[in-house]
Amino acid sequence: MANPVLPSSGVLSPLGLDDVRLAPGFWGGRVTLNRDVTIAHCQEWMEREGWIGNFRGRRPRRGREFSDSEIYKLLEAMAWAGHPDLTPLAETVARAQEGDGYLNTRWTGNRYSDLEWGHELYCYGHLIQAGVARLRNHGEDRLTEVARRAADHVCRRFMDTNETCGHPEIEMALVELYRATGAERYLEMARRLVERRGLPALGEIHLGRAYFQDDLPVRQAQVFRGHAVRALYLASGAVDVAVETGDEALLKAIEAQWERTVARRTHLTGGMGSRHADESFGEDYELPPDRAYSETCAGIASIMLAHRLLLATGDARYADVAERTLYNVLATAVALDGRSFFYANPLRVRVPAEPLDGVNHAAEGGLRSPWFDVSCCPNNIARTLASFAAYVATADPGGIQIHHYTPGEIRHGSLALRVETGYPWSGEVTVRVLSDASGRVSLRVPPWATGATLSRTSSAGSPEGSPDSASGGSAVRTVAPGYATVEGEWRAGDVIRLELPMKARWTFPDRRVDALRGSVAVERGPLVYCAESVDDEPPLADVAARVTVPPAVAAAAAVVPDGEGPIEVEMRVEMGVEIAAVLGAPDADEWPYRAEPDPVGGADTTLRLVPYHRWGNRGPATMRVWLPVAE
Amino acid sequence: MANPVLPSSGVLSPLGLDDVRLAPGFWGGRVTLNRDVTIAHCQEWMEREGWIGNFRGRRPRRGREFSDSEIYKLLEAMAWAGHPDLTPLAETVARAQEGDGYLNTRWTGNRYSDLEWGHELYCYGHLIQAGVARLRNHGEDRLTEVARRAADHVCRRFMDTNETCGHPEIEMALVELYRATGAERYLEMARRLVERRGLPALGEIHLGRAYFQDDLPVRQAQVFRGHAVRALYLASGAVDVAVETGDEALLKAIEAQWERTVARRTHLTGGMGSRHADESFGEDYELPPDRAYSETCAGIASIMLAHRLLLATGDARYADVAERTLYNVLATAVALDGRSFFYANPLRVRVPAEPLDGVNHAAEGGLRSPWFDVSCCPNNIARTLASFAAYVATADPGGIQIHHYTPGEIRHGSLALRVETGYPWSGEVTVRVLSDASGRVSLRVPPWATGATLSRTSSAGSPEGSPDSASGGSAVRTVAPGYATVEGEWRAGDVIRLELPMKARWTFPDRRVDALRGSVAVERGPLVYCAESVDDEPPLADVAARVTVPPAVAAAAAVVPDGEGPIEVEMRVEMGVEIAAVLGAPDADEWPYRAEPDPVGGADTTLRLVPYHRWGNRGPATMRVWLPVAE
């Protein structure tokens, strides 16, 4: 089964890339673009920057201490995509491996001399994930052999120490290698790495132990904290260990940490991490939009974690958060041409960024860049989109659950379904049964979709388009958020129709989020919207929303010119939203603290909003997700 | 004249430490504590950390690349304080100077190999300022000689290049050395360093050229940007150059940059700098209280700049901002025992900091620390408090201007005045004329002091306490913010009384400061207040202010136990404020973005506020300056 996560137990079982075939659509277009453009883009940049050359022994070595991991992430992407460049690149990597399995272009000759910052086990983690991807989507080859030898080396070297790596990642990789091979030492190594963290297992660093989650044992923590990617990778590994060892307490601990983090430390987009200084979660409710860091890799890590928790528990809220993050972080982080990327994904950009052709030395989020000094995000996007189909649907003994709506076909057991939808632009999802079968079909109803309806139309005698006909259709019924389930025997041609209400809606923050007080955002379906200062938009610093008038969906428009690559039609659709707004700035440009309140008012105007994931594709601009509420 | 800044022209002339004698009071107590405790504390820590040992040639060298500057700042503090340890410490420094004047313990043997980050000219700047302090408060000695030799070396090495230092500071030091010695090469060197910056004069760094103000020529910039201390030191040097060279355009440019920065990039406390990641100003109106960086050194630099602009222009608004920063950044940054310090001064602390006895590796602002890896702030506080008297008053051909009210005596020409006041706890300021004289006396009326009154009582025949008596007193008149002036001939015993209204008051933010929308703060006189979670305060995350009830001053209380040092009585006074508040948290602990507004309400309570500069003197606590406005 071709899936990055294949637990041996859990409420739901994932379907793989072989079970879920994507057709053109929001995600299908992006997956194609990723395969045809982004993967090659990443490979070219890593050749240019010398990070691949490091494996050829070229000196001086180039790139940061963790740059090996980028090649491994790309190899994982190539493995899922069935990309022809995988074999020669894997061969280059293989030749750099030492006799005992050690492999690292930065620390060779000086092994494990800086576990806090060296990233050696982190790099292995990505190598092993690439190996597992290759094994599952192709079979044994040179890459899988290199990954296993590295994993065996790690087990020999670290099984009986109390050490770990400053950057978690290898934990989930080792569990997956255990799942793929059955070799229990990998699971035991992962279990020990999870358990020894926080005893503590690492030395002091100036950022403090919480930075790399070595301040507390995993099962004692209350919330995710410190460096967001580290925290979320560790939690993912802990879930994997908990599931494979039947450790209910550990699973519950991560669930509780996730719950508090989602309630108090997550941006509207699903983005995680408030602080630029150490790429960390802030404190509870510390969520200023200006400086939302919301790193792309943290968003991906959050999707990975939510997917694992969904599989373990079957709870729809994990898929809800994954969906929010997919549409508003992952889809945002890559440009429509597949060649430039956001590292940070702030919710407010006050000054248009300077265009930059070359390597971006900073991680700011004003404009997508073709490459970064720390270029973790592009390769992480590549491997995630390459394995996107693995997140769409799952199975349990009773049938299939569809979590994310995108056109394509899903097969499991006797059930074969075709999903037709314009989601997220349209709320209509049609699931067509392709052959006679029996089993339950469950469709996720997102929490915002109050009033969603479901109907079933039988192919036998039911006229097309009359789902409520007595002969073959079931009545349209309202379904609550969670999973809407249709049970029964199926005939080829039967149809299930889910209708999700897609009105644009206002969203208000919890009063404890200081930085958002008196502000409002617009969402529609799973999409967060934003104002963007291209065309003739008014100055975004001076607008406010009139929330007494509901936001209105504007006509769909194809505002993005054709790219050079094979961009799917879907990617040129933009469903805008218009809101009633006021425009007005205080006259004063003086000390900004005064004896009287400064009411948010101005002259009536309308403001057009675009989906957040689309912003920044038309050149430098200002942008804001949260707007002041006009008084 | 003993003053760190002695321009040869300008609307106002500074008075020196010899003209202004401080008596016990808010600042007098702090200046004494600084002289008796803080200076020795800094010296001890720099011996312990090896930073002084570096000058003795001990290897391996210890401390950061700029640690030499810390010894120089301490020498400046010692020079102003007339401290006996100056001579041996200066001797230690002198012995490390090379034959041609070069002096740096980090880069000796590898001079000027990293101008972007090396801080060599920055260190000279502090050395030269120490030398000037010594020259003015004592006379020529070994320290002044070392400083001059270093300055001469800099002029020889850099006069005809296009290079500069990554950290501005030497510009103002060289101008001051010119002022103190008359040697024009120092002014010319300073002028060239100011002018060549931004052409650009430095190499690329990953933080971008704006970080060290090398993105634009000084006179073309619109606002202070990048690293806050660097920006403010550069601006101070530019003002000094402008004043000495009669460059009106340059002066106007800095005034305009200051004006926009104060209107859009300054915290309520006067603190400057929003971002932790690069210690920089954020964009306009990017002022989240959580992560206000508001570095102590940036506050000091802002006071230095405002003082220079005040001298050049005579405009009260510069003294207004200086006062705000003195009371709410400088006074905040040092503990009541003089032995621990804030580096960052955030306006919100959500989680009590962990107590720490040793060196603080971070710059977070949760608890004052005895020392830091980057320990710029303690020595900067020491030199600023040691020269505090220099900021109090100025003179012009017509008389004396008093800018900051603290008990003491001020003498200039024939005028000798004694100031008696309990400011900032009380708004009554009494200025007693000590001998017969003539001249104008001007008293600054801060912008919040609407309704301030002034009266003059003649000693001849006027009964004590009847300022409006026809015989010897003038009528009480209301005076507007700015300078209130009394002209005339004076007899010993004449009295001027200024009465500043000291009601606690609500302060609201400009609507453009997103992170403060719907919030309110309390100020009283020059003091910003805050809620602090010691004693039995309610959880600060769940309180809101009822702004329909005016804040009330609570009885003065001596809540701080006697320290070990000779703390003045004044430092034990605390004038609290009580406000009507509501207390209530939402029940939900779930996704914090919802379809309905979350009104700020709760059960009625009262909340006690303390002056912001006093917070954190009673152990770990949460704190907030801005409170939500209850609906």
Characterize the structure shown.
Two copies of one chain form a homodimer. With about 625 residues, chain A is of the alpha+beta class. Chain A contains twelve helices and 27 strands. The first copy, chain A, has helices spanning about 25-50, 65-80, 85-95, 120-135, 140-160, 170-180, 185-195, 230-245, 250-265, 295-315, 315-335, 375-385, and strands spanning about 15, 20, 350, 360, 370, 395, 400, 410, 415-420, 430-435, 435-440, 440-445, 450-455, 475-480, 480-485, 490, 495-500, 505-510, 520-525, 525-530, 545, 550-555, 575-585, 595, 605-610, 625, 625-630. In chain A, the strands form five sheets. In chain A, strands 3, 18, 19, 20, 21, 22, 23, 25, 26 and 27 form a ten-stranded antiparallel β-sheet that branches. Chain A has a seven-stranded antiparallel β-sheet with strand order 2-8-9-10-17-13-14. In chain A, strand 6 (about 395) and strand 7 (about 400) form a beta hairpin. In chain A, helix 1 crosses helix 2 (about 65-80). The longest helix of chain A is centred in the N-terminal third of the chain and has 23 residues, at about 25-50. Chain A is globular, with a radius of gyration of 24 Å. The interface between A and B is large, with 65 and 65 residues.
Give the helices and strands, then pairings.
The structure is a homodimer of 631-residue chains.
Chain A: E1 13-14, E2 20-22, H1 26-48, H2 67-81, H3 86-95, H4 120-137, H5 142-158, H6 170-181, H7 184-196, H8 228-245, H9 248-264, H10 296-313, H11 316-333, E3 348-349, E4 359-360, E5 371-372, H12 376-386, E6 393-396, E7 399-402, E8 408-412, E9 415-421, E10 428-433, E11 437-438, E12 440-445, E13 452-457, E14 477-479, E15 482-486, E16 489-490, E17 495-499, E18 504-509, E19 519-524, E20 527-532, E21 543-545, E22 552-557, E23 574-583, E24 593-594, E25 603-611, E26 623-624, E27 627-628
Parallel strand pairs in A: 4-5, 7-12
Antiparallel strand pairs in A: 1-6, 2-8, 3-26, 6-7, 8-9, 9-10, 10-17, 11-16, 12-15, 13-14, 13-17, 18-19, 19-20, 19-27, 20-25, 20-26, 21-23, 22-23, 23-25
Helix pairs in contact in A: 1-2, 1-12, 2-4, 2-12, 4-5, 4-6, 6-7, 6-8, 7-8, 8-9, 8-10, 10-11
